[in-house]
Specification:
This protein is an alpha/beta fold. It has a domain at about 150-225. It has 10 helices and 12 strands. The chain has a 6-stranded mixed sheet with strand order 8-9-10-3-11-12, sandwiched between helices. The protein binds adenosine-5'-diphosphate and magnesium ion. Adenosine-5'-diphosphate (ADP) binds near residues 73, 75, 95 and 97.
């Protein structure tokens, strides 16, 4: 069946898996898939324990001719790209070009129009039935979205819950983790993000930087294998940016998560990425090692974009 024939079901805002709003949808996998020791060299240098961070078994991501339209606005035009298992990739590109849409498709917060998205060796929006590729049902989407976690620009904490419940609600309700285990893991993650003393605080009592740290811990509490970061420092006061970036860099280095990051902070992109994808007008314009993309971009569009970003 051609992908154009598929009409996958979208999660509804009321979906209990999705939290109180679609953007709150917790992502993550229950299956820790083995706590293998990382082979990354920099881990040894870090010297810190990797408090409950996912190790091993992270799937890659593949977009195959993905089309996404909003009415007549074609945002993704037969988009093809791949993120390898455990790879850290940054997506850069002009505002309004569709970067958030790419992440939201992976979180199943938007439906795709055409094409196929793979997470590991499984299709996200389709499933196999009797050897035929058919639109995914809710059960398939539910299982697939457990593998993916996302941190949003605007934090999106559950406003009516304290920090502890923000971290335990998803694991208990969606993953079926026991309350005790969820609390223990929440404590450990709050330690990791440096907010152990805020366990009973409400989001309104926290600074933007602290809220974003809680949002990072909440995403990790769902034990995702793929972590999506959408301009996670752009809503923060400038003095808080570096602390959150340092935290994310440490998490990236200490885990084997597959990471897809959207950012306008080019120094951070250079620091955190194995590879950078320059995205514009629905397609990848250029991709390469951060040193190449930022040092010797091959495409004029990349050069223009970087010049504009650096001038701003
Ligand atoms: N829910 C939506 N309904 C209609 N248009 C949308 C929606 N979400 C995004 N868009 C449009 O899709 C385009 C890409 O948006 P987005 O993915 O947010 O870009 P970026 O993250 O690169 O700034 C924009 O033109 C935006 O207006
Ligand atoms: Mg965006």
């Amino acid at each position: 069946m051609p992908p154009t024939d598929t009409t996958p079901e979208a999660p509804t805002p009321q979906d209990p898996e999705g939290g109180s709003t679609p953007e709150d949808a917790p992502g993550g996998a229950k299956d820790p898939a083995g706590k293998s020791v990382s082979t990354r060299k920099e881990d040894a240098a870090e010297g810190k324990p990797a408090a409950d961070l996912p190790r091993g078994g992270a799937p890659g991501i593949r977009f195959e001719k993905v089309v996404k339209r909003f009415g007549s606005n074609v945002v993704l035009r037969e988009l093809d790209f791949t993120v390898e298992p455990g790879e850290r990739v940054t997506l850069i590109g002009p505002s309004g070009s569709g970067k958030t849409t790419i992440l939201r498709l992976l979180m199943t917060l938007e439906t795709l129009n055409e094409g196929v998205i793979w997470i590991g060796d499984q299709t996200l929006w389709h499933m196999d039935r009797g050897g035929k590729r058919v639109p995914a049902n809710q059960k398939h989407l539910h299982e697939m979205r457990k593998q993916v976690g996302m941190v949003f620009q605007q934090f999106n904490l559950f406003p009516n819950m304290n920090v502890l419940r923000n971290l335990t609600e998803g694991p208990v309700r969606v993953l079926g983790v026991s309350k005790d285990e969820a609390v223990e893991r929440a404590r450990s993650l709050l330690d990791l993000v440096g907010l152990a003393d805020k366990i009973n605080a409400h989001p309104t009592q926290l600074s933007g930087g602290q809220q974003q740290r809680v949002a990072i811990a909440r995403a990790l509490a769902m034990q995702p294998k793929v972590l999506l970061l959408d301009e996670v420092t752009s809503a923060l006061d400038p003095e808080l940016v570096v602390g959150v970036q340092d935290l994310l860099r440490d998490i990236a280095r200490q885990s084997d998560l597959t990471l897809l990051c959207v950012t306008h902070e080019m120094a951070f992109a250079k620091d955190i990425s194995d590879r950078v994808l320059m995205f514009d007008q629905g397609q990848i314009v250029e991709e390469g090692h951060p040193d190449q993309i930022f040092g010797e971009p091959a495409e004029q569009r990349t050069r223009d974009f970087l010049q504009a970003v650096l001038a701003s």
